[in-house]
Amino acid sequence: MYRRQFNRCTQSGVIFDDVIRPGLEEPGEWSGPVTVGCVAGDAQSYILFCDFFDRVIEAYHEHKITSQTPESDFNYDNLKGGDDLDKSFAVRCEISVVRGVEDFCFPTHCSRGERRQLLKLARRALQQLEEEELPGQLFLLEELNQEQQRNLNLNPPSSSQLRIGVARDWPDARAVWVSKDGTLMVWVNMEDHLRLVSTRDDANVAEAFKCICTNLQKLEQYYKQLRHQFIWKQQLGWVTSSPADVGTGLKISVHLKLQHLPKHKRLQDILKRLRVHMDKTESPVLYRVSNVATFGQSEVALTQLVVDGVKLLNAMESRLEVNGDINELVPTQK
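The chain above was modelled as a monomer; its predicted structure follows.
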């Protein structure tokens, strides 16, 4: 594979060594979470190094790349439930979506000039969003004081981000836009060109999903008017710097209070069948449940997968609280 790829170079100068650097710099532990270990420096990387990227995408998302255009569905009314999660278990939810902007390199290969131009575009698009839909304010990271950084849960760049170039010239041209009602945040020039995040402390996934769909589509229109569309590839869907986010770029996570299920011997098998991932949080009884794949299903289908999975995990936890058996609740392999 390396012999076939090493002498290729995209028009913006991305070589194969740039692509695989994350995995070489930080290979991770065999027992740790699954990561892709590679990044795309620009949109052309997915074409020029397709022999490599296609294999990574298919392995990570467990979905075959075909000639068919990936399905997309932003009709939030098609979501069944999501506003009815048991509040005794579900305490918080977060939905995020990432997008890359046409004609610019991805953050690992982005120049300072490109980054500043991306910030100008974001400022204009978000200003239009403020005027027409959702009042908010843009904050430049370099102007934030320590208290503001804490309120935004903003951490300094990690060593891995520094090594692969994502944090080059930090914090120049990095920004975050926050809606006045607190329902939406838009991060600019972080690990991706744009990252929209909707967080709710009532775990109302349906409302968070509606917020993301509505405002993402508005921003897409504004960027088209600015003659810089979001990057879409025929066989992959929406593409950004990480192959782990291709397709929809959508991540849905719900924080659950669980005491018994995390200790169950079948937990990993159950999570695999549900196609979700569970992470520990700072609280010993609070766990973050989220989708793994972003490719192969529509936005509504992925959100539905997490909603249904969370409901089933809650049902299992309730059964275990009274020393019941959960084997009959375990789903068939998806």
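The chain is about 35% helix and 15% strand.
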